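Sequence in, structure out. Go.
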Amino acid sequence: MQNFWNELEKCFTVLAPMEGVTDVIFRQVIARAGRPDVFFTEFTNVSSYASEKGRANALERLKVAPTDAPIVAQIWGKNPEHFAELAGALQGLGFAGLDINMGCPDRHVNSAGGGAAMIRTPELALECVRRARAATELPVSVKTRLGYSYVDEFREWLPILLKEEPAALTVHLRTRKEMSKVPAHFELIPEIIGLVKAFSPKTKLIINGDIKDLAQVKDLAQKYPQVDGYMIGRGVFENPYCFTDHVGTRSELLDLLEYHLDLFDAEDARLRCERAAALSEGLETVTRGLPFDPLKHYFKIYIHEFPGAAELRAKLMECRNTREVREVLTGWDDK
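Output:
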C-alpha cells in the first residue's frame, strides 16, 4: 500500500485529534469551511475495540465521511496485542494511515498507561508500534510531546521513536506536565529537525502547539522549511476557517452552525433507526441516538466576536434539542 504521507506537499496542514470535538460530524463542518490536507479522528482505545462490549462504540468513533479523505485513525492504549488487532481492522475502514497517541495529557488516559504515559514506558511503546505495523499495510505514525515532566526529555525520547522509522512524527511542543499552561517551545524546532535528520530522515515531521491559522503556518514554514507539516488544534475554536485565508462573516458562521445541526440530526436519526431495527429483531443495543448536551460545546466556535454574540450563546445554552436551537436562531435573525 502506498504511503500517503509521501504524496503531500511540504507545509501540509492537519486538524489535530481532539476528544469530544473532531468527530465525523465536526470534520464535515471543517471540510465545508476549508479543509486541512489531513484529518485525524478522535482517539480510540484499542482495548475497547478488542472487547465484545466496547467494539460497537469503538467502530462508531471510527466512522468516516467521504469528505474526510485522507484521514488517519488515532488509537491509544498499552496492550500490544490489542494494537495489532485494531490495526489489522483499520485497513478496511477507509483510513489512509493510523497514528499512535503517545501525547494525550488526560489523567484518566495516563493512569491507564496510555497517551503521554507511554513516554515513561519506552519499551512498551515500541512494542505497540511494532505490533501495529506488523498487522497492517497502512503507514504507522506517532503523536507525542517533548517529555512527560521535563522539556529536555525530548533529546532521549524522540530518538527512541525515530529509530523505529515512523511514517510521520507529530511533536506537541510542550510536556505532559506543562499541559497548555505555557507557550509552546518553538525555539526547539531546529534541534528536533536535527534529530529527525540524524535518526529517520524519511519520517515526516509535524509540529503542533499554539498554531492558530494558515497565516501562522506560512510564517513558520518560511522560518523552518525542513518541517513537513503543521497541526492545528485549539485554533479551530477561534476560527473554523483557520485552514484558509478566509475570514468568516457572522452570516457564514451561523450558516456553518446550521449545517452542523443538519448533520447532527441526520446522524441522530440514523442511530435511532438502527436501534429500532435491532430491538425489533430481539437484539440488545446501547445505541439511543446522539446526546444533545455535548453539541453545546461547539456553539462558541460559531458565535463570538460580533454584537450580541454573548447573549445569543446564552440563549442557545438553555436549549434542550436542535429544534429549540433553530427556533432561537430564527428569532434572532428576525430581530
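Check: The beta strands are 12-15, 38-45, 71-76, 97-102, 140-145, 168-172, 204-208, 229-232. The longest strand covers residues 38-45.
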